[in-house]
Amino acid sequence: MGEEGIKVLVVEDEASIRKFIAINLDRNGFKVFEADSGEKAMKMLKTCKPQIIVLDVMLPGIDGFEVCRRIRQDTQDIIIIMLTARTQDMDKIMGLELGADDYMVKPFNPLELVARIRTI
User: Fold this and answer.
1) What is the pTM of this model?
2) How many angstroms separate the CA atoms of 100 and 105, rounded?
3) Other CB atoms closer than 10 Å to residue 86's CB: what's the count?
């Protein structure tokens, strides 16, 4: 299957960044869902059943690290790409150890995000 029909949940509290990611993924044929908090993301997992999650770390309420941990308790089938402004190595290591498949630092090129999704 190409990108058509692949569901991506974008979890980002900053609306402008979330829309920017969603538009670029949509243009590349992905079916995009959006959440602006960790709590909404956890609810949407059950309804939209994404194959891929683009997950910001710094979210209101439960943060991206906790969302990642909770998802990995239930499934290994969802690809998780952490997206954050936090550049310290320990943040990257923690995200990967909690089960993230990849980790991108803001600012980022949306074409790189699409390429990373395709390679995973």
Assistant:
1) 0.91
2) 13
3) 17
pLDDT of residue 1: 44
Query: What are the backbone dihedrals phi and psi of residue 2, each rounded to the nearest 5 degrees, phi first?
Result: -75, -160
In the chain, the amino acid numbered 13 is D
Cis omega (within 30 of 0) for bond into 107 = yes
Would you say 80 and 100 are in contact if contact means Cβ atoms under 8 Å apart?
Answer: yes
Q: Over the stretch 62-118, which tens digit does the pLDDT of each residue have? A: 999 999 999 999 888 999 999 888 777 888 888 899 999 999 988 888 899 999 988
- Rounded to whole angstroms, the Cα distance separating 21 from 11 reads 10
Angstrom distance (rounded) from CA 58 to CA 44: 18
Q: For residue 43, what pLDDT band results from cuts at 50, 70 and 90?
A: very high
Write the Ramachandran bin of 20: left for phi over 0, alpha for psi from -120 to 50, otherwise beta: alpha
Sheet holding 102-105, edge to edge: 31-35, 7-11, 52-56, 79-84, 102-105
